């Protein structure tokens, strides 16, 4: 017998979690599972147990033998057999009920125990520094997700350092509200460059894209299908209650000409509420309140049923959208985003968009939810509390519901005479080839009304050249229900280069500060050059009005927490000592 209960818990949970998570991602992808350090890298996992360490997951109690007296007549025998059958049936149901109860307790234990905190990410690497003379063109799809930043925030607020594989710089940068100027165009473009505070000889090029905003009256009617994960893993971390609160908040903001339907899924999927006018809020709230967690997770069935309903509700010119609410821990059916979305491609092309709304920390599949949104014409959001719900479904409702451009892409062609080197900060999983830019069959990003998309580059400017142009900026996109590719072209002149950070806009300085924070969290090569205190110093130089913003105050707190938690060593130091660092050449490890 094992004397240490913690050891027993580790053994039980490790075995169970490997079984539960074995199908969470396709075999060809490099998936990182953190917590108990179970990794799915395409190689078989061998479990070794000693005799002492073997322990049953569920210990069902034996049925007590039935005491009987000797049988005297055939009638008594008949009654006895019947009695045996009834008792056996009842005991079987009792054992089954006990098993289901213990199974739910196990789900809760897995999701709440510090010994079994599991998150699934995909590692995308870090963009290298590019020599412009060899490759002057940078192409990537737009991204308005916030999942990476919100999940990292939730973890730091629990005094836990987020895993570096879950840090995507663009989602940190695009989670901040910037005060960009707007004109009447679909996309208003702002740009400037400032000397890098941390990489000598380089500037930070800030490109800000503001989508046209609309008011509530201008928002098109919406046909929304909520697809709610009610599997057993949703019983922990207050996940299900958060989703209920989020869905009810969304419904409370809708107009009378909007419609809502509700699909729930665990190992099966069913329609909990057919298409219903948003004016019937009590009926919708009642359906949401009845949701109970239990069972396995078949996200494929849930999404298929949701898209079937969305097809039936579809109306041209409406905001037709499926909203998947889940922790992403799919463990039966198809579990890779590619497989799950294969059967809904026609709906995607038709103009039915997808939002994935993630919750939970203890058991959470970031990779699945992020890629479902990426490949399903949508965006990936994360909520951890009432503040996040308010932000997503009240403050940003029009942006989340009404898409103004789909398959949106950015391409920058740097002037090799003026720019010798450049590096894009983030967007590693949004990279596109040059020829993909105007290819109508290549997926891009979806942008909602009022959304902002910000991209940052480190650039090395050739001061000896007196050119008037830094680069050419182009945007490609389609209309929400169109197939034709439209383009916008702008010149980025040398005049946008500032001589110091003091003469640079607060938005550019703020965006760089949060990007530097993300670089630090994911242990980027260039993050070795500065400390968390250096990032705080940059924020302290912002105007007082900016420092009073809630988003800046929260960012400062997160940086302070990360500083106290981060005791990691420098992985680059043994082979590339910081004293010998070459600011123009980077050892590419990923």
Outline the fold blueprint.
Elements: H1 5-21, E1 31-34, H2 74-112, E2 118-122, E3 130-131, E4 137-141, H3 147-156, H4 169-173, E5 187-195, E6 203-211, E7 222-229, H5 239-253, E8 259-265, E9 269-277, H6 281-289, H7 299-313, E10 319-326, H8 337-342, H9 345-350, E11 353-358, E12 363-365, H10 366-375, E13 378-382, H11 386-395, H12 397-401, E14 403-414, E15 419-424, E16 445-448, E17 452-461, E18 469-478, E19 486-493, H13 506-521, H14 532-540, H15 544-547, H16 550-565
Parallel strand pairs: 2-12, 7-8, 7-10, 10-11, 11-13
Antiparallel strand pairs: 1-2, 3-15, 4-14, 5-6, 6-17, 8-9, 14-16, 14-18, 15-17, 18-19
Helix pairs in contact: 5-6, 5-11, 13-14, 13-16, 14-16
Task: Write a brief structural summary.
This protein is α/β, with parallel strands linked by helices and 590 residues long. The protein contains 16 helices and 19 strands.
Mean pLDDT: 84
How are the strands ordered across the major sheet?
Answer: 9-8-7-10-11-13
Strand content: 15-25%
Rounded to the nearest angstrom, the distance between the terminal CA atoms is 45 Å
Number of strands: 19
Overview of this structure, please?
With 590 residues, this protein is α/β, with parallel strands linked by helices. The chain has 16 helices and 19 strands. The longest helix has 39 residues, at 74-112. It folds into 4 domains: 1-57, no CATH class; 58-113, no CATH class; 141-199 and 404-580, no CATH class; 220-401, Rossmann fold, CATH 3.40.50.410. Mean pLDDT is 84; it is low at 17-29, 35-71 and 110-116. The radius of gyration is 27 Å and the shape is globular. It has a 6-stranded mixed sheet, with helices on both faces. The protein has a 5-stranded antiparallel sheet with strand order 3-15-17-6-5, covered by helices on one side. Strands 4, 14, 16, 18 and 19 form a 5-stranded antiparallel sheet that branches. It has helices at 5-21, 74-112, 147-156, 169-173, 239-253, 281-289, 299-313, 337-342, 345-350, 366-375, 386-395, 397-401, 506-521, 532-540, 544-547, 550-565; strands at residues 31-34, 118-122, 130-131, 137-141, 187-195, 203-211, 222-229, 259-265, 269-277, 319-326, 353-358, 363-365, 378-382, 403-414, 419-424, 445-448, 452-461, 469-478, 486-493. 33% of the residues lie in helices and 22% in strands.
